[in-house]
Amino acid sequence: MDVLQLVVSGLANGCVYGLIALGFVLIYKATEAVNFAQGDFMMLGAFITVGLTNQAWLGLPFWLSVPLAVFIMGVFGYLLDLIVLRRMFGQSQIAVVILTIALGFVLRFVAGAIWGHETVSLESPIAGKELRFGGVVLGLDEVAVIVVTVLLTIILYFYFNRTKLGIAMQAASQNQLAAYYMGIPVKRVHSLIWALAGAVAAIAGVLFASKGTIDPSAGLLGIKAFAAAVIGGFGSLPGALLGGVIVGLIEPFASRYIAAGYSQIMPYLLLFLILVFRPHGILAQVHRKKV
Amino acid sequence: MTALEDILALPEPVPAPVLAVKNLESYYGPIMAIRGVSLEVREGQIVTVLGANGAGKTTLMKTISGVMNPQKGNIFYGNDDIAGADPDKVVRAGIVHVPEGREVFPLLTVEENLGMGAFVRSDADGIRADQEMVYSYFPILAERRRQAAGTLSGGQQQMLAIGRGLMARPKLMLLDEPSLGLSPLLVKEIFAIIRRLNREQGVTMMLVEQNARVALEVADYGYVMELGRIVMADDAQRLLQSKDVQEFYLGVQEQSQRGQKRWKQRKTWR
To answer: What GO terms in the biological process aspect are recorded for it (chain A) (predicted)?
Structure first.
């Protein structure tokens, strides 16, 4: 079952893209800024987990170091907004975009300085194992990536629709002024959204590192995730995941059936077509935002 | 005069001011939008602030609710000066601002919008009771409770905005242009409810309006603002009778010399 294996590995990649895209959309919806360092957040989350888990560094148990890394990235996101981005309030969008691009470079070199510029693999209990269903052989890591992403999606869905803080996050992104009038501490909500984006990126990083290797420039796949977010409909959380999955699924099939050199452009060709024919993305959430 | 007569001759006791604004100045960038405004809102009353576009009414409200910071002056709420406090502190203290243009959360349901009104509260039972109270004043909202607020009509959104404000259980409610863009019938309905809320729930109201007649009819006291200053202050009934207010804000004119209304003859449309 060749096709099934391609689908599973495509889905697994797509989940990672989708989770990074989710970080883009979370921050964009709430603060109208695009965090181009989102891919590097993922890389940093992965390296923190490597630093905590691998025997060469701290050697903590995997199941302890993952929540720890997620927590550290959450705090990192929160403090980044509190200390840096809040000071940018009132500056143009371009300033924030440039700042996050620069931040991406900084994170890449900091990670390189700490963990080296070579590729590292995470000593993950799910890496390199296989699942057999009759004649079908699937990588445990890939299946785990898909399962974790589905679970995380369900958790986030309930968080945003059932909890007071989650609804307040939606409210603040739909009408910031009204949120102020209702006594929602909008600035703190923004910091918490950066924290959430950091935590989701860390989970994406652990998943990414579990099914391959990681190096400091791994964050550059954030560009692909950005494309995924645009395809899905920038501003829609389900759209981000859907876009990620679509891009992830295109890749293995393209490289299988299309000549090398052309296959890599397929996700971007789709991005191009979407921008031409459906500029708001597949799951566009079009409503006019009041100022 | 005997002592007894002396006491009887005293005027009705005036309720204490809930809010006292003193010499407030606020800027929009370099432009001074309110220039030394002082006013009082007394407990249990409806106080209206009238004025044309750009008179500074909305700026005054935004400064009270903490969305804008004043350059100078004080806002006494009870004994505390809340000038320059963050909006969430002001809401917690019991002042809620129902903004101009309704400003609901368009993609949240009616119920979620009401829930956000109670964001600063954590007494689940009280919140549920207040939600039922809001539904009893605005039954249409109960029917639409699962509907996205952005799909409601203008009048229903205004009801939702007022209901959402009530959910914070305010002592003082700042209502900015509740009649904006509504049909005369709906304006009447909304103002009747505002009056009832004031009487039955004991919410003190500060009401900014361009629709001077409706506002003065429900209000106890009124201020008139022009170019960032208070130019008149009096009982609402007396303001309704005042020649200046009648001419500039109520559109009442002395019988015209020409004896007929000019707009009927005019052809301004090309």
So the answer is: amino acid transport
A285·B107 Cβ contact <8 A = yes
Residue A100 inside a domain? The answer is: yes
Answer yes or no: is B256 within a domain: no
Cβ contact A180–B87 (<8 Å) = yes
Residue B263 lies inside a defined structural domain of this protein: no
Q: Which domain holds residue A173?
A: 2-219
In this structure, the answer to whether residues B176 and B126 fall within a common structural domain is: no
pLDDT in tens, B17-65: 899 999 999 998 888 889 999 999 999 999 999 988 888 999 999 999 9
Cβ-proximal residues to A221 (8 Å cutoff; 6+ apart), any chain: A16, A17, A20, A39, A42
Give residue-wise pLDDT tens across range A40-98.
999 999 999 999 999 989 999 999 999 999 999 999 999 999 999 998 887 888 899 99
> Does any CB of chain B come closer than 8 Å to the CB of residue A165?
no
Q: What is the pLDDT of residue B253?
A: 62
Q: Answer whether B103 sits within 8 Å of A181, measured CB to CB.
A: yes
User: Contact at 8 Å (CB) between A253 and A25?
Assistant: no
The answer on B165 and B224 residing in a single domain is no
- Mark yes or no for CB contact B88/A185 under 8 Å: yes
Task: List chain A residues with CB under 8 Å of B103.
Answer: 175, 177-178, 181, 290
Between the alpha carbon of residue B115 and those of residues A181, B149, B170, B199, B254, the distances in Å are: 14, 13, 15, 24, 50
In this predicted structure, the answer to whether residue B5 has a pLDDT above a threshold of 70 is: no
Q: How many domains, chain A?
A: 1
User: Which token pair is B159?
Assistant: 């009801």
Kindly list the residues from chain A whose CB atom is less than 8 angstroms away from the CB atom of residue B119: 164, 168, 182-184
Contact assignment for A287 to B106 by CB distance below 8 Å: yes
Confidence at residue B254, expressed as pLDDT on a 0 to 100 scale:
57
Flag whether pLDDT at A289 surpasses 80. Answer: no
Question: Is A175 in contact with B105 (Cβ distance < 8 A)?
Answer: yes
Structural domain that includes position B241 = 16-94+172-183+204-245
Do the Cβ atoms of B117 and A182 come within 8 Å? yes
B179 in the same domain as B79: yes
Which residue among A168, A170, A180 places its CB closest to the CB of B67?
Answer: A180
Residue B44 backbone zone (phi > 0: left; psi -120 to 50: alpha; other: beta): left
Residue A206 is assigned to a structural domain of this protein: yes
pLDDT at position B249 over 80: no
Nearest to A240, CA basis, from A10, A14, A5, A7: A14
User: Do the domain assignments include residue B196?
Assistant: no
Chain B contact for A175, CB < 8 A?
yes
On the question of pLDDT at A262 being above 70, the answer is yes
Q: Of the candidates A175, A183, A285, which has its C-beta nearest B119's C-beta?
A: A183
Mean pLDDT across chain A: 91
* Residue position matching structure tokens 């031409």: A276
One-letter amino acid of A30: A
Residues pairing with B230 in the sheet: B225
**Closest chain B residue to the Cα of A188, Cα to Cα:** B88
In A39-135, which ranges are E strands?
Answer: 120-121, 130-133
> How close B98 gets to chain A, by Cα (Å)?
7
Give how many domains chain B has, as a whole number: 2
pLDDT of residue A235: 81
